[in-house]
Amino acid sequence: MIFIKNIKALVGVREGGETSPLRGADLGNLNVLENAWIVLTGDRIADYGEMDELGNEEDGWDQLLALENQADRVIDATGRFVFPSWCDSHTHLVYAGSREREFMDKIRGLSYQEIARRGGGILNSVELLHNTSEDELVRQAKERADEIIRFGTGAVEIKSGYGLTLEDEVKMLRVARRIAEETPLTVKTTFLGAHAVPVRYREDRDGYVNEIINEMIPVIASEGLAEYVDAFCEQGFFTVEDTDRIFNAGLKYGLVPKVHANQMSFSGGVQLGVKYGARSVDHLEFTGPEEYALLAASDTIATLLPGATFFLEMDFPNAKAMIDAGVAVALATNYNPGSCPCGDMRFMASLACLKMKLTPEQAIQAATFNGACAMDVIEDLGSITAGKRANLFITKPMPSYEFLPYAFTTPLVDTIILNGQLYE
Ligand code: NIG
Fold first, then answer.
1. How far is the CA of 267 from the centre of ligand 1 (A)?
2. Which residues of the chain fall short of a pLDDT of 70?
3. How far apart are the CA of 309 and the centre of ligand 1, in A?
4. How many CB atoms lie within 10 A of CB 74?
5. Cα(98)–Cα(334) distance, rounded to whole angstroms?
6. pTM of the model
7. Strand, coil or helix: what is 38?
8. H/E element holding 39?
9. CB of 122 closer than 6 A to ligand 1?
10. Torsion, Cα of 276, 278, 284, 290 (10° steps)
């Protein structure tokens, strides 16, 4: 048992039983318990409360002493905050090498699409991944996993999409499964065969979509390698019709749709995602009132990826209008070598505040509670709730919880606990 006492504030405390994402005013209602304690038993949050409940000078702090005696470990969190671990619901964490040469092309003025048309971009990572063994991919991905854990992340969704052959897509998803087995992260996996059209199908996109539907999805589903099916529904990548066919096939095999939608244009990806009851539609730089109304009336979560918007130097989506319209908004990193080589959820929260004018409360809940909803782990993660998994981090001493997105590069995540165990 771990007993954490004298916590300046427990952040993101919620009653159990909530399974729907937070919308509207609820997103900004961050429940905070000041001068608090929390007890972790096994891999669970057992209980929490206010320090005042544990006694006083007169009764000799009976209950406090009892908890201290029972605990295997007592942590004094004076001046520190306890947050639920981040839930990062959109990443491409498994990839080979890096693409800083394209970073140089970008600085010289080439756009993401121009780099892709010249054979760079996703296809560059596809070749690198093809020439990298599964064990080496695991080694590289574990380094990134360690990095994001130290940023405070406890759950991560990982996509395939740098394979583009059955063999290499399976290789990627196996690596993602090994990240689940060999690290304390909770991992959900997504089959993203429709990430780019591979060179061998350059003149025959339909042929590639047929291969995805007839050869990849059946194998990936039967081997239990993915929970979700995704597609990059965008000009120059996959059309609404392609995505429709892929989702239709995925659903027959029990894969729940997610979609890269409206990143570079009004692609129709949001409309299609909502039609298929996608768990989330992600990116959304090109959206307006029509998309907001559709999303608000649906169960589909709008996952915003401000790190990619920042790195690609695009206009940010109007997150405030989405929230006001009643859309369920989540934040994720999109950690990948092309559009966001950064897996720091705290930085995403800072960008959300600075560039999309979310309040710190909204940003924190979009990156924890709603992120957990966007990867179907809300019954276990995403908030400080008795009975949920003990995934949390303790900050360094800070004046307020707003300090976390404010001091956007200060290393503030101090002690990490995942599955009730200290991560050292
Ligand atoms: O979400 N947009 C498509 N996929 C990634 C970029 C992947 C890459 O460039 O390697 C994204 O931004």
1. 16
2. none
3. 11
4. 15
5. 15
6. 0.97
7. strand
8. strand 32-41
9. yes
10. 40
